[in-house]
Amino acid sequence: MSSACCTLPPVQAEYTPKGEYIEVAGLKTYAVGPEDAKAAILFVYDIFGFSPQILQGADLLASQGFRIVMPDFLVGKYATAELFAPGHEAERDAYFSGFPGSLPSQSKPVADVAKYLKAKHSAVGVIGTCWGYKAVILSEGVGEFEALAGIHPSFSAVEDAEKINVPLCLIPTKDEDMSIVNKIYENVEAKNPGKNFMKHFDTHQHGFMAARGSVDGGPRTEAYHEGYTILSTFFKKYLKV
């Protein structure tokens, strides 16, 4: 059993985030965990922004000694649950046609936050969730990180592996194309054999560790907690916490 399994706090249905909002590289940023931590993790949220579930996930990781920063790369312009309800197709199309997080626009912001963290911490990792995974992969700062995790990664492509030269953790769901995700993993594993990890949560939907996650108990909450346990174990190993 991993140490994270023993020490990661339980998920709470009624929850108040433990961090604070600061400014990093000009962006409002949720920050939690020791400011003097040896290791820091840039956590790139999904299209729903600062959801309660993803903030609790950041706090779970911070409880293990990491400094976690989650910048507001979408500058407050988040998707909402209503956009995905029947009858809201026009609003949904309008949101995505003008999506504020277009991948090219995030290249420098991600790199700027990486540089900020490297100036303050001796080891820096990154988590990209959903859209955030691809934003990290395409960033000019992707080479700044010592370890990288992709959680229910969107827009994955086989050539993503060409950008990844550090230990990789992948947590796909039933909604990702596993023929592509498996190939990314195989190609990164060929470069860094034995230093990567993947678990396919094949009965869970895209977003189960973020805004679509459940913190109310039952199998979905157990999977949510397991996912963050995997992340904690992975980053403890490769960021040397």
Characteristics of this structure?
eight-stranded mixed β-sheet, hydrolase, 7 helices, Dienelactn_hydro, hydrolase activity, 241 residues, alpha/beta, single chain, Rossmann fold
The average pLDDT score comes to: 92
Total strands: the figure is: 8
Alpha-beta content class: alpha/beta
Q: How far apart are the termini? A: 17 Å
Question: Segments where pLDDT lies below 50 for 5+ residues?
Answer: 1-7
Number of helices: 7
- Number of folding domains? 1
Strand order of the largest sheet: 1-2-4-3-5-6-7-8
**How much of the polypeptide forms β-strand, as a percent range?**
15-25%
* Rg (C-alpha, Å): 17 Å
Share of helix, binned: 25-40%
Shape: globular
CATH superfamily: Alpha/Beta hydrolase fold, catalytic domain
Name of the top-level CATH class: Alpha Beta
CATH architecture: 3-Layer(aba) Sandwich
Q: What do we call the CATH topology?
A: Rossmann fold
Largest sheet: 8 strands, mixed
SSE arrangement, N to C: HEEEHEHHEHEEHEH
